[in-house]
Write a structure and sequence with these properties.
Helix 2 runs antiparallel to helix 5, helix 5 packs parallel to helix 6 and helix 5 packs antiparallel against helix 7. This protein has 2 domains: 233 residues, Malonyl-Coenzyme A Acyl Carrier Protein, domain 2, CATH 3.40.366.10; 65 residues, Malonyl-CoA ACP transacylase, ACP-binding (Alpha-Beta Plaits, 2-Layer Sandwich), CATH 3.30.70. It has 14 helices and 10 strands. The protein has a 4-stranded parallel sheet with strand order 2-1-9-10, with helices on both faces. The longest helix is centred in the N-terminal third of the chain and has 19 residues. Belongs to the fabD family.
Length: 317
């Protein structure tokens, strides 16, 4: 029997009109949008369904909206899905918490609404920055991080281990600018990210402390299926361990390469991504293809609408 992992995308997978088709088809999912609007105090449907590009890009709007979209896709197919485990990339980990049964959708919408607000306000002076470093292997990126620290005298580290040739660095702006020049000289490429701070780094500690107060107030359940933690790249089912790992997420790295490789080693051969735009399914393929797997097949696909999810379910029953 095929072992399937459900994976939930984070920021970067959004699109205009995301989630609209599914919400207009399902009262349950439309109610999820309404609940998110009530909790966040933001008119999310007006922003994402009326093509307000400037508002759509704002972290405090995007985090609850994208969570509703990925949760809605999961809810639409959940009664027919038989996953062995789940994971989510950064923000996506919050949707995975619902899929594994550790939290309910209302609890998660409360957390992501607060998370988006805190991350937006965490760096009012604009001293933090992030950039994607591509076309260079991990060892070389790690070396460039150390060089950038030395050159700038500022903090920087790898925040996202996305694929064997794609990493995201996060830190103080001077160090991020320095690694951009170093990457170019090493025949790599640095792509600045449009974010409001140095996410997944110790520079988010104050925001993390505030979010963790809210996390501590919630009652977590043991997971019904293992949740692969962003920061640990380990499968967790114990409610205390899940809570502890989640509290490290805003200041710690996303170890996506290790998560996919470890899931593979545990027997997973199929990955199903919930996202408006395919991101993780492509990254998963790049991670597994880099291992030069022999005599073994895997599938990695993404669903972003009722039509694509229905097609998946039709061929995977």
């Amino acid at each position: 029997m095929t072992k399937t992992a459900l994976i939930f995308a984070g920021q970067g997978s959004q699109e205009p009109n995301m989630g609209r088709e599914l919400a207009e088809k399902s009262t349950e999912i439309m109610n999820l949008w309404k609940e998110a609007e009530k909790i966040s105090g933001i008119e999310l449907r007006n922003i994402y369904w009326d093509a307000n590009a400037e508002e759509q890009a704002k972290t405090q709007n995007l985090q609850p909206a994208l969570t509703v979209v990925t949760l809605g896709l999961w809810l639409y197919g959940s009664s027919k899905l038989k996953p062995c485990c789940t994971a989510g990339h950064s923000l996506g980990e919050y949707s995975a918490l619902v899929a594994c049964g550790a939290l309910n959708s209302q609890q998660v919408l409360q957390l992501v609404s607060l998370r988006g607000k805190l991350m937006t306000e965490a760096d009012p002076s604009g001293k933090g920055a992030m950039a994607a470093i591509v076309k260079l292997p991990q060892a070389e990126v790690e070396n460039l991080v150390e060089q950038a620290k030395t050159q700038s005298g500022k903090f920087i580290h790898i925040a996202n281990y996305n694929t064997p040739m794609q990493y995201v660095v996060s830190g103080e702006k001077e160090a991020v600018e320095a690694i951009g020049e170093l990457a170019k000289a090493a025949k790599g490429r640095s792509i600045p990210l449009a974010v409001s701070g140095a996410f997944h780094s110790p520079l988010m500690q104050e925001a993390s402390n505030e979010l963790n107060k809210a996390i501590d107030k919630l009652s977590f359940n043991n997971a019904k299926i293992p949740l692969w933690s962003n920061v640990l790249a380990q499968a967790l089912t114990d409610h205390d361990q899940i809570k502890s790992a989640l509290k490290m997420q805003m200041t710690g790295p996303v170890r996506w390469i290790d998560i996919i490789q470890n899931q593979w080693q545990s027997g997973v051969t199929q990955w199903l991504e919930f996202a408006p735009k395919a991101v993780l399914s492509k990254m998963t393929s790049q991670i597994l293809d880099a291992k030069n797997l022999e005599n073994t097949s895997y599938t990695s696909c993404s669903v972003g609408s009722s039509e694509s999810l229905d097609a998946y379910l039709k061929t995977n029953q």
